[in-house]
Amino acid sequence: MAAHTRLTADFDLVGHIAEMSASPGKSFKETRLGKRARGWVGTKKHLSLALALLEVVPAYQDKTSQEVLLDTLAALLHRDLPFTQSHLDLMFRALAKIESVERLMQILPGMLGAIERIAGLEPLAPRHRQALKTIQERLRHADRKKQKSAAKLLERMEALVDDSTVSRLYPDGGWADYLRDWMNTFETRSRQPWDRFLQDAAAVQPQPPAKTWKVEMDIENVDPDKPWESEAYRRRNRTLLERSPSKAWKRKITVHLDNLARERVSDFLQRCLHKVAGSKPGMLARRSTNRELMRGLLWVCRELGDDKLPLAVQSATKFFYKNNSPLAETGVVVLHQMASQAAATALANLARFVTKASQKSFVEFALSLLTEKLGVDPEELADDSIPTFGLTEVGGLIRDFGKCRAKLTFRSARTGQLDWFRADGTTLKSVPAFVKREHLEELEALKTTTKAVREALSSLALRLESGYLTERKYVAENWRKQLIDHPVGGILGRQLIWQVEAGNGPIVFCWRDGAFVDSMGNSVPSSFASPITLWHPLNATVDEVINWRDRLDVDGMNQPFKQVYREVYKVTDAERATRIYSNRFAAHIIRQAQFRQLAKNRGWKIGLLGPWDGGDQQAAERKLPHWGLRAEFWVTGVGDQLHRCDLLATEQVRFYRHEAGGISDQPLGLETISPLVFSEIMRDVDMFVSVASVGNNPDWVDGGPGGQYRDYWQEYSFGELSATAQTRRVLLERLLPRLKIADRGTLADRFLVVRGNLRSYKIHLGSGNILMTPNDQYLCIVPKQTAKAGDRFFLPFEGDGTLSVILSKAFHLADDTKITDPTIVSQIKR
Fold this sequence. Notes:
alpha+beta, 5-stranded antiparallel sheet, 33 helices, 48% helix
């Protein structure tokens, strides 16, 4: 009783009960105690209050007081409070004192959530599972009206009563949910071997004498600003890369793999790992059954050694790095210890993905050790180790299901089409029901293959395009094997234009219908003695570029990135005058978050701008080791948003010497920079501005906060076209006559003009924003994020989201009488 009195006094629960009893309709947050709770920092005080309530609920006999306390507890349980196993007895004692089934069902959702989080760390004790069974019996005997509501609670408790590893996985909307659903498809006898395998996988521990997976670094005599450059950090990395599971664990897993069939386990792991990206990240960041089982599954990948697994590990590890999970380092260590070219390729892709200095240093260290061990060039291995994923021809895979067959076809980097046919060749509209029923696992494997091929093609496209700035050269024999004849690599290689030096000048060619042809369709020799490179339009004549654009149209080529339509940037007179910097893309207002993501994707590095000393100005930086250069793009936090730096103002582009022998802070003359380097860097900056500018946002017609950017928005939205927008116009000149709206669309200066039934519309080719004739009234249409140009018509390249938006708007406005969105209709008829 003394404890009850103290707990009651600490939070004035007597006064709280009186207040709530006097005002039955008052919510917890409106009470004095609720207002106090809003001022508490963190969860420590909230947990103390919850524990106090659990302690005193059994002590109150009168129904009114108990209901007030339970209502308060229910409000607190909406929070993710850090309950532990030691609190479970208290929880179940309080639940046992609730006499009303209706009141029990009100408190159970929050209470079960807390118990599920605890069970996610370790199994419930037998007495706690028995307590849950007792509550289940009470709910099963509830009256008929409550049965439907009770069903979901019973299902959750059934999972908690089950002490298998899968039952203790916390719902995450991704891999854990998939694993649970997949396991539920097994009958009890078939499921048991998998349950034992997963239980042992989750129990993975490091080989003694190591006791934890974490490796600390000796920080003595280490520069706190750049610890990743120290010898101590390299020692720490080496130790971490050598850490592995215990021999006892390996022996157990080997037995499981032999019993379950290695190939089947490999397919299962690929499906799980490729679903990690769709998961809620929390349970993989903190200690939980989810995290430890995932750690074990990663280590199982190493034991299998299947060359299809590194790409799946890479996909999951990207997610871990993005969401600050310690499993990111596990993924890198696993890839390093898999010691294959496919694993090295995955590490190379991760090295391009991560930008944080310490993370990048670790991944690059693991990659350097592995490539040295394999005796391979990192550039060469990337293309040489692309898995086939079971594809039997370039871009094609056929699977037989007896009564029908499935055909998976890839025609570009981002599309994968799955078609179904009867045995007689008749096309089916959807997946046959018997396939979903009898071949669910094979169907999931097909979906995983589709996703894996897309990821492999995405990584390959980035590597190929980045080859421009490294002047990448391919040995003819390897090039043919990796990028023309390979079932996956050939999907992209056959859509690109290539170049080889010959005695009388370069030969420029592409692959078409089993042969190499030039821009006019004439055959060229298929045997090459010199290295092969990607063709770039920088040094091509206008006629050569036009001929290749014609070739793309004739052959229906869909390039993975802009090549034939690639923008070319040359030093202007204004830049010759400024000499050491370019203001070509200065004075734009861009969104920081979007810009930083774009910069990261293109290999640039930039820190977060914010309200701290020196935090309102930075330079995005891209190192160019092949050229011994460093490019910088300066940005500054602006306006009333400075306290958050949501918006940035763009400034100069500069180049500096950056070599191993010395780094210079003296800017170089723009005319001394290689024309290829200058063009590619300026193209990146143009893309940053074109995509991240607030001028693209149709909702900013009022100029944003306080209207301070109204003039900029107006000028960008409807002003002169950038190089990217000019390319868009050139393409539309070719494309428009072939579209269904050809008789309703014309190009006029900076606009695509579309004639609707109600009005005519001018869509700006840079921003995608719209003016309506006859008075240039602004029309606000917020584009859907899922709009894809390729859904309605052929485009010769991928990656121009604004072009997709422009064409999507054009199709809708050409048939404006069928527009039903009231916000759009009211503007048109205004």
